Amino acid sequence: MAVLHGSWLLNDNDFFLWGETWRRLRPDAHPSGETTTIAAHPFALSPDELHQSLQQHQLHLAADCPPEEQPLQLPSFEDDSGRVRPLHSARPVPEASAVTLHPWRVSGLRLRPEHTLALLRQLPLTVAETDQKQSLVGPDLKLWQHLSRWSLDLLARGKFVPGFVSVPMDISKPVGSFSSIAPKIAIASTALVNSFLKSVGRSHLRPSTLTAATPLPSL
Q1: Contact indicator for 121, 60 with CB cutoff of 8 Å
Q2: pLDDT, position 98
Q3: Distance CA 81, CA 32 (A)
Q4: CA-CA distances (angstroms) from residue 109 to 13, 45, 59, 118, 156?
Q5: Does 24 have pLDDT greater than 50?
Q6: What pLDDT score was predicted for residue 184?
Q7: 158-162, 167-171, 201-205: least confident range
Q8: pLDDT at 32
Q9: What separation, in Å, do the N-terminal and C-terminal C-alpha atoms of the chain show?
Q10: Element (H, E) at 162
């Protein structure tokens, strides 16, 4: 069964969606510990396989989400032969001392904020503990799912400051924007979360038509 994952691309304000599935690995499917190139993630779904998996689970995604490839640092371990393998999220975790972060080249899809929000709204919020390993939603995607719901809560409670930002191509025509007033949270990458909240928050207001250059409605 496929497991969905996701990462917010801070520099692009887009979302990277990818999936993994268990498959038997060839001996050359994972690199040795000493390598200078980033190997392809052997469990990652291709963009076509990812689309098929979404359709099988009746999850609707916009047709104009282009294929994407990203280098990701993912939990990995060395097998008995000394080769590095990615840790599949559905398998038992080895001892913590045996797990390290290793770069992998992962294929997936690039989603704009409004498409990200539309997908996250379709995912189940809770999964029975006994079915956790069979869940379609990976733990990282659950984080973004809850953050998207939190951004809606912040908007509903007026926890934002309206303002203006300059458009790079025409600084004489600023457009409306806002910054969320999120409570202080203990999280490693505050900038990453704030970027996600701001981009997805705009999509909450006008999810189908709002673009980066569209003024926000009066609030």
Answers
A1: no
A2: 81
A3: 9
A4: 14, 10, 14, 14, 30
A5: yes
A6: 55
A7: 167-171
A8: 55
A9: 44
A10: strand 160-167
